[in-house]
Design brief:
The chain is of the alpha/beta class. The chain contains 11 helices and 19 strands. The protein has helices at about 25-30, 70-75, 105, 175-195, 210-220, 230-240, 255-260, 275-285, 315-320, 335-350, 375-380; strands at about 5, 15-20, 40, 60-65, 75-80, 90-100, 120, 125-130, 145-150, 155-160, 165, 200-205, 225-230, 245-250, 265-270, 285-295, 325, 355-360, 390-395. Keywords: Oxidoreductase.
């Protein structure tokens, strides 16, 4: 039987809800002494997980102290008390956290300019519930495995509102790839792509976190898929996930190749790079083509965050082809999120979706292990080295630990 704990730390009054009471039991239990114990555990300085191992009193997390797109300049590691989950929250012991191109937009304060440092970094994690509030215990219990898309993931422990977390069958990094990267591709193509069988789709940064999913979903829709990337190894990977025409732009001239091989243009572009690649993609649109702006990574490291764009002729080009440019930002499509995740998880379970993870095994200093390797992992992405989703193993299991 599990012990669900809501403990103010270090000697505050504590509630311990004993036994596996869930759902309405857990919610009503506060008033029903006949059905559950509420034990004063104020002597305890620790949360306890269901295996009885202790949660340390302090942990490490990454904090943005200064606004800058230079992640190393903006962010530092801090030791802080392990936070206490609120009534509707989970305390998650992070096992894997995901790196996103926008981690440096976030550290530069571009998401919400009203938020001033210090603030926590990291968008997504997956791990084990080790503590939770009473209301949260209606849906979760200690020991559950969950993934979440929310702020403050670059930490050893993160408090996550239970309603923003997703139960996952196991703590596998593959599930982490779906939270932001997979969901972005799934929802953007579904809502804005208007894909029809036989159409041609161009995916930029195709071998990366979100690009790999765009390639696969476009293939599943019966399209011919072109994917850009920067190495032959990535081109080989793209072939393996069904991309019809990987283009390594380091060895092939992208503009010439598109003009020569696709003279009628491409119907849809899933565009993540921006700047000159955006311009090239606009020039490559077919009549009634749709370009989805997913990002513009080529500008993120600059002071403005925006890559230079000529763009003055954009209205002419769009009009002449009845083409359109459509922006997509995942938080605006949260109503599609659960369906997207459920559907992708099913595809993965059936072996119909590749969720490629790059844990840094081939990185210069080796695998991304421990919170401190988030810095290396961000550099690695911006060096264009990653193949698949960049994931950091925050807390690899010790020899003595059991299931993770
Ligand atoms: N709109 C949304 O809601 C949303 C959500 C998630 C992600 N995104 C966007 O999706 C894009 C990809 O993000 P991700 O997290 O999945 O990253 P990723 O694709 O896993 O990694 C970035 C890739 O972009 C290319 N790249 C890196 N630095 C570059 C630079 N300076 N100039 C040009 N290309 C560069 C590299 O691929 P190659 O070397 O192979 O070209 C690199 O592997 C980003 O633009 C991001 O902002 C948007």
């Amino acid at each position: 039987m599990s012990s669900l704990l809501l403990l103010p730390r270090h000697g505050g009054r504590a509630l311990s809800v004993i036994a596996g009471l869930r759902s309405t039991d857990a919610l009503s239990g506060v008033h029903s002494t006949a059905r559950r114990f509420i034990v004063d555990m104020s002597y305890s300085a620790h949360f306890m997980d269901f295996k009885g191992s202790s949660i340390p009193s302090s942990m490490r997390k990454l904090v943005v102290n200064k606004l800058s797109p230079n992640f190393r300049e903006a962010v530092s590691m801090q030791s802080v008390a392990v936070p206490t989950p609120g009534d509707a929250d989970l305390l998650v012991r992070n096992r894997f956290v995901g790196i996103n191109a926008s981690d440096i937009n976030y550290s530069a304060g571009r998401y919400d300019p009203s938020v001033k440092p210090p603030f926590d970094a990291g968008f997504e994690g997956i791990g084990e519930v080790v503590g939770l509030g009473l209301s949260a215990s209606s849906r979760y219990t200690v020991g559950d495995t969950v993934a979440y898309f929310g702020s403050g993931a670059f930490a050893e422990y993160t408090v996550v509102p239970a309603k923003e977390s997703v139960p996952v069958p196991a703590v596998k990094p593959e599930f982490l790839t779906l939270l932001v990267s997979g969901a972005t591709a799934y929802i953007a193509l579904k809502r804005l792509g208007d894909l029809a069988k036989g159409e041609t789709v161009l995916v930029t940064a195709a071998a990366g976190g979100t690009g790999q999913f765009a390639v696969q979903f476009a293939k599943q829709a019966g399209c011919h898929v072109i994917g850009t990337c920067s190495s032959d190894e990535k081109a080989g990977f793209l072939k393996s996930i069904g991309c019809d025409r990987p283009i390594n732009y380091k060895t092939e001239d992208l503009a010439k190749t598109l003009r020569k091989e696709y003279p009628k243009g491409v119907d849809v572009v899933y565009e993540s790079v921006g700047g000159s690649i955006f311009e090239l993609a606009v020039n490559s649109l077919a009549n009634k083509g749709r370009l989805i702006v997913i990002g513009f990574i080529s500008g993120y490291q600059s002071a403005s965050g925006i890559p230079p764009l000529k763009g003055g002729t954009l209205p002419v080009k769009l009009l002449q082809r009845s083409a359109s440019v459509r922006g997509f930002f995942l938080p605006h499509f949260i109503s599609d999120y659960r369906e997207a995740l459920g559907s992708m998880m099913q595809l993965y379970a059936k072996g119909k979706l590749v969720c490629e993870v790059d844990g840094g095994d081939l990185a210069q200093e080796g695998r991304f292990t421990g919170l401190e390797s988030v810095f290396r992992a961000v550099d690695y992405m911006y060096d264009g080295k990653n193949l698949g989703k960049v994931v950091v193993d925050v807390a690899p299991p010790s020899v003595s630990s059991s299931k993770l």
